[in-house]
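note to self — DONT lose this again. spent like an hour looking for the file last time. sequence + predicted structure for the chain T wanted, 746 res
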Amino acid sequence: MKRFLCIFFLIYSLLPMYPQAKEKIEFDHLKKIFLLNSYYQTHTWVIAETKGYSPYLYRPDYELDIEYLSAVNTAKTPERNLILLNCFKEFYGKKDYDLIIIISQPAYKFVAENYPMLTFMHGKKIVCAGVAIDDSLPEIPNVLFLSLKFAVNETIEQMLKFESAITDVFIINDNTSSGLASKKAIQRQVEKASFLKGRNINIRYNKNSNTEDLMQEIKQLPPTTALLVGFYAQTGKGYDISPEEFVSILTDASAFPVFCLVDIYMHKEIIGGKMLEGITLGKLIGQLAQSILNEGTAPGRIIHQEQTRWKFSYPQIANHKWFTALPEKAELKYKPLGFFEKHKLWLIPVAFLLGLSFVAFLIVLYFNRLLRAKLTEKTQSLRQYVSKFEQFVENMPIAYIELDIAYTVRYWNSAAQKMFGYVQSEVCNAHVDDIVNLQNSDVHISSIIKNIISQDISNSIINVAKKEGSMMVCEWFFTEVRDENGIPIHYMCMVVDITEETRLRKELEAMVEKSKAMLLQNDRFIAYSMHDLKNLMTPIISYSELLSLEQTTPKMKSTIEKLNKSANSVVQVFIEMMNISRIRSGLVQVEKQPFELLTMVCDIMSMLEINFKRKNITVTNTIGQNINVLIDLEMTHSIFLNLLGNAIKFTYPNGNIVMSAEQENEDFVAISISNDGMPADIEKLNQLISNRKYFTTKGTSGEEGSGLGLLLCTDLVQKNGGKLSVTRYKNDSGACFTFTLPLVRQ
């Protein structure tokens, strides 16, 4: 629901222009008055501008309660309405008021529909001002309506006097309940207008309910139309439009003369009219409240007082030359300014602007001098930088060439002259194809540059010929320079002669391949030699085992056992050396296949069971099932045998060995073999694993070894794609060897 025109009357009624209200009336007690209005604009203006209904109702002997009834929150849902009624009951239910004043159509409708629940109003005198009686609403007891007089006919008659060519009068009201009530009152007066009888004047009313549609409707009116604003505060955008905004939109949308019926719309853009005045309504409310509170009745004379006055805007009537046609007692709301006021309006700003301009000129002049000095300094610095850059480009050891988009040489430094044999004068403005000769005469350097830049490649190696004909290998670096629109403007090329570097690289590659072949031949020789030596030691071992069966002296038997033990150790060393040589020489090929880790570990533990029992070692295996690894079976078998044998060797009798596995990531599993016992020299072990430094240590029971087992394990783990590492075991006793193996991808 929107603002009703009578609210604007009330705004003016708050001005201190009613002399009778200044007289203090003594009462035996403070008179309590409850005033209910419906619109935010009225409420804000009353509270902020006049601090109450001064001077008509804001008095020392009145206790005035003003309630702002939000039309948006009422009559939407029963729940909202009930909440609002409960608030009224809580705040005002216990007060005994002497007079109830209702202003505006929405407030009147709210009270009429909810009067049974507004118990604090029961039995009280109620004054309704600025409302139209609605027979469809329930009757409010003890109500006095303060009727209003509209001056529609007088205004239309004066419009026709001002402009004799007017054929249509377009009256504007919105479609809210307040606007429709105003429209009905206007229609009643127009129907009774005697001066319209016999005249061909069309009275039109707007049909659309929002501002945008209204403007379209106005554009369809005849050119001899005059506009008359009754009440309009509704838009199609969900908010109330202010009078100032509406008048501005209305005058911008057409060149029709505009009149109004409510003084709140009176602006410089409005010609004028005999308008309803809020100040008069304020007087009537003040007189009525005083009469009722003093005498208990309302005087009839105030009901029929004149409530309209003529008001005009000088700029509009001057533009239309209607100044002489003003009716009597007309007020120029916007009067013409005197000579001094007219000049003051522009002289003061002009003088201020001149002074401001002079100060600004001095400031600009000062900063201009500073800027020029700074610019001179920067220019000199830039020139020095450019000079240094040109010297750097000219004297740098790398050939630098600049080409335009047609591949014509624009710059050629001294390094390019030394490299290609052409001086600057020979190449300037020459095509690059005529200077740089390629080994393949069917291809041009410009086509190569174009192809490389189109593929966003920054460098390329090209074989070119010098001026005297000898070939050289060059590495070219290209940069395409573009303007702000992305269009190429020139190319920058830097050329490095890598002929000698290429020759040395080829010689080095040949030497590396030759060394690899020699090392491979050497590793093969060692592998075959170790195999032959192992075969030679086999008879010695066999004979020593036979001799140990013969009946000999204890001393001889001890000697034979030592001989057998030494021969077996030598054979073990030969086997390990042979395996290492075979792996490094590439004689052993890796054949990976999926295998369950737990199955392999159980097989190896069965093979070494007698070794565990010999030293009464407890073996704990926490490796779980369903760990499938992709490995070379024979190599991984050797890794477990060597590492478990190493753990048995350095574990004291009655000691412990722990085997575990943990997934390192989605590709690898880490297997750990840990033992307590003899403290391990971690530094030496890491050197053996990483640097291939050889050493050997006796076991806890005097076991001897070659020390080559860890070297072999390192190579075998790497062949399977993993890595081997060693750390101290808990309490710095023993060691923990960890190696990784690849998992089978799911």
